[in-house]
Amino acid sequence: MPKALIIGGGVAGPAAALFLQRAGWEVEIFEAREAPAAYGGLFLNVATNGLAVLDILGLRAPLVADGHACPRMVMCSGRGRVLGVVPNGPAADPARGSVVVRRAHLHEVLRRGVADAGIRYTSGARLQRIEEQGDHVIARFADGTRVEGDVLIGADGIGSVVRTTIDPDAPAPAPSGLISIGGFARVPGLAPTPGEQYMVFGAKSFFGYLVRDDGTAYWFANVTASASENSRGAVGAVAAEEWVARLQALHADDPYPVPQILAHVVGEVGAYPLADLTHVPHWHRDRLVLLGDAVHATSPSAGQGASLALEDAISLAAHLRDDGGYAEAFAGYERDRRPRAEEVVSYARAVNRHKRVTRSRAGIALRDAMLPMFLRRAASDTRNDHLYNHVIPW
Ligand SMILES: Cc1cc2nc3c(=O)[nH]c(=O)nc-3n(C[C@H](O)[C@H](O)[C@H](O)COP(=O)(O)OP(=O)(O)OC[C@H]3O[C@@H](n4cnc5c(N)ncnc54)[C@H](O)[C@@H]3O)c2cc1C
Questions:
Q1: Least buried of 146, 152, 270, 332, by fewest C-beta within 10 Å?
Q2: Does 174-274 carry CATH code 3.30.9.30?
C-alpha cells in the first residue's frame, strides 16, 4: 500500500487523509502544534461548497450541530442604514447557504473523523526538512525524528515549509493592508441574528458580527494597517486589551450594537495581518505536492479559504486514486484546481478594496450612495453561484 506523509493537521490535511484512506493509501498526519485550544483561531465561514465535501465524509451534520446557519449577510453603513442584503451561498437557492463555526470546532470534527478512521495524527511534529531519495521521500522533524513515505503532501498553511522546499523562489504571501481582529462577546439584551451576519462599513474600520441563539456574539473588525503594522510579528506584539481599546475608539460613533459588543468582549481576542497568495508557479515537484493555504492562501473576505482546502483534499485524492501514478495525479489535480483557486483569491482581494478605510467625508458619502445600487443587484445576482455550487464527485 503506498504511503502519504501529510504535513499539517488544520483543514486540508485531515480531509486529504480521510479521502486518501478511502482511495487505498496508508496515511499519517504530522501537526506542529502541541494541543488544540477551544477558541483558538476564532471562527470562520464554511461555505456551501465546503459543506458539500464534508457531507461526503459524513462530517457535515456534526459540524453544523454547533454552527450558526448564515445564508444572508446584511450590509450596513456607519450610520446604521441597511445598504443591502446579499446571499452567503447560491443566490438562487438560499436554503443551501453557508455556516459560521468556531474554527476549533471544525478542527475537532475533522480530528474526530481522523481518529474514528484509525489514522495516525501526531501533534508537536514540526517539519523542518525534506529529503528526496529516488523512490521515496523522508520528512525530518524538529524533535529529530524522521519518517519515510512515497509522497509528501504539504498542507502546512500560509507559511508552508513544503512550498519553499518545492521552489525556494516561491512567492511570499502578499499583505492586504488590513489587520483582522476578532473574538466573542456577551451583551445583555442583544437579540440573536438567526440566518444572518451583519457587516458594518464603519467610519474608521469595517466591522462584522452575528449573535447566536444563546446570546454569544461572534465579531471581527478589519482595520487598515499602517506600514509598520503589516507583519505577523508586529501584530502579535500588541496585547489583546490594546486591540480592544483601539477598536473601541475606532468604532465609538458606529451604530448599535457595535460599540456595545466591543464593551462586552469575553475570552480570546485574535489579531492577524491578512495576506494572500494569488499565484504560486509550482504546485508540485517530484513526490511533493501542496494544498490549501500553502498554495493559494486567500484573505477571509470571500469566506472560502477552508472550503477551498476541503475541495483540494477531495480533488487530490480522486486523482491519486484514478490517475496512472503520482506525477499524472499531481498534474491533473493542479489542472483542475488552479483556475478556481486563483479566481477565489482574486475575488477576495477585490472585496478587500471596499473594506479599506475611506477617510474623507465625501468618500464615505459616495461609498454609501454607490453601495446600495451595487448590493441591490448583488442580492439577486447569480454570477457568484458557481463559487458555491462547485461539486467534486467522489
Ligand atoms: C483571520 C482569519 C479569518 C478567516 N476566516 C475565514 C472564513 O470565514 N472562511 C474560510 O473559509 N476561511 C477563513 N480563513 C482562512 C482559513 O482559515 C484557511 O483558508 C484554512 O484554514 C486553510 O486550511 P489549511 O489546512 O490549508 O491551513 P491551516 O488551517 O492553516 O492548517 C495548516 C496547519 O499546518 C500546521 N503547520 C504549519 N507548519 C507546519 C510544519 N512545519 N510542520 C507541521 N505542521 C505545520 C499548522 O499548525 C496548521 O495546523 C480565515 C483566515 C484568517 C487568518
A1: 146
A2: yes
Q: What is the CATH code of the structural domain delimited by 3-68+98-173+277-353?
A: 3.50.50.60
- Of 156, 207, 312, best ligand 1 pocket probe by most atoms within 8 Å of the beta carbon: 156
Protein residues whose CB sits closer than 6 Å to any atom of ligand 1: 7-13, 30-33, 44-45, 125-127, 155-157, 161, 180, 272, 292-294, 300, 303-307, 309
User: Rounded to two decimals, what is the model's pTM?
Assistant: 0.94
What does the domain layout of the chain look like in residue ranges? Answer: 3-68+98-173+277-353, 174-274
Contacts of 359 (CB under 8 A, 6+ apart): none
Q: Is the dihedral of CA 221, 99, 10, 277 positive or negative?
A: negative
Q: What is the pLDDT of residues 53-108, one digit of tens each?
A: 999 999 999 999 999 999 999 999 888 889 888 889 998 787 899 999 999 999 99
**C-alpha cell recorded at residue 2:** 503506498
